Amino acid sequence: MLGLRQAKVLNVSDETIRSSTGLAGGCGGQKELCGGIVGGILAIGVQHGRADKSLDRRPAMERSGKLIEDFQKQFGAVSCRRLVKDFADFNSLERKK
Hints:
Elements: H1 2-6, H2 14-19, H3 35-48, H4 58-75, H5 80-83
């Protein structure tokens, strides 16, 4: 979320940025689900989500599903562990490109 705000793609509050901090490193540094995917889904929710159960959730659900499909096609996985397996240093600048 911070990267999206810094790139001026998404305008969100500091509270929202703080709430997404734990997504880093595959969610809490566990190298599980890619935090970038979760952050992307949260960003989709900011733009297309519902704030009331009576509203349609399909716009956010469809976009979120497409994000995951496209990400898997491009990178081969949504698991942080699988995405970074070829990098000797998880914190390297090369991996962050």
